[in-house]
Amino acid sequence: MSETTSKKSPWLDAAWAIGPVLLGLLLTTLALIAIGADPAKAYATMWNGAFGSAEKLSSVMDAWVPLVLCSVGLLITFTAGLWNIGIEGQIAMGAIFATWVARTFDLPAEVLVPLLFVAGAMGGMVWALLVGVLKVYGRVHEIFGGLGLNFVAMGIALYLIIGPWKREGIASTSGTEPFRPAAVLPNFPGLSIGPIEIVIAIIALVIVYLALRGTQWGLKLKAIGKNIRSAFWLGIPTSRYMLGAFALCGALAGIAGAEQSAGVWARLIPSISGGYGYLSILVVLLSGFQATGVPFVAFFFAAVTKGSVSLPLDLQIDSALGGVLQGIIVLLVVLAQGVRAKFR
């Protein structure tokens, strides 16, 4: 296969993109058959669990919003060559900061809701900058620094829930007291999602897309990601740019945490991040590190995540099947990209 043929064949490009997804579905189907389950019923159950009603679709959007926010944040750090695995902790710290605001200030919703998101962004930003400082000045790899801070953030959330912020008379891990009504995001009638979080996710997506594609800042960030030493010798302040990338990613993750606490749960719970940070890494990988692909891949992952919840109830199949399908598809897509690059 020549390079020219590869570049000029849209059908071949489509085959490389769709083939791994179809192969992933085939492998998952074989796994279902191996455990004695009916694949058609399993997929129908997942479809109905995600799209069977307006309420279920709104549940999918509940997962879509934090996935988009975290994914576009990770696009910034990935562009700079930084693996921000600590994004789970940054979501948690965003939720903690937002919860503090919700518990402290008795303000009208018009003032309190923006304040919640600002606090969430600050919480995520501070936690991400800790990873960045450890990376830049302490020579601690961002993967290890991020993972360590994830555990610390989860520990802080649990301490607050069963300690200073425990519910009156009990110390339960089910969460803090529900927020006052002014601190809860408004939803569409009868649904679990509202307009504010959707608009914020779309705005974040557009801003990151334009910043990475059409600004000098984005170009310098790409230069750092390609070769940090060359970028430094070209006069780019690499440390400042890397810390900035961490801060922006953390702010977006923190906004996702604020949305989870004020929009989905209306309180702080121990597992407030919901694994959306780790799942966002897969979203970015499957979207080919392109902002244009993020909303679609995030919607697919959100649908699979929410749709698989019905499997244990309807077919006695563990809901982890959704995670297996997502993981297999991502692995095959990454493998296909590697094989294609090798034989070009």
Would you kindly provide a written description of the structure presented here, covering whatever features stand out?
This protein is an all-alpha fold. The chain has helices at residues 3-8, 10-34, 39-51, 54-79, 87-104, 109-136, 142-162, 195-214, 216-226, 228-233, 238-265, 276-286, 294-307, 311-315, 320-343. The radius of gyration is 21 Å and the shape is globular. The termini are close together. Mean pLDDT is 89; it is low at 1-6.
Write the layout of secondary structure elements.
Blueprint: H1 3-8, H2 10-34, H3 39-51, H4 54-79, H5 87-104, H6 109-136, H7 142-162, H8 195-214, H9 216-226, H10 228-233, H11 238-265, H12 276-286, H13 294-307, H14 311-315, H15 320-343
Helix pairs in contact: 2-15, 3-4, 3-13, 4-8, 4-11, 4-12, 4-13, 5-6, 5-7, 5-11, 6-7, 6-11, 8-9, 12-13, 12-15, 13-15
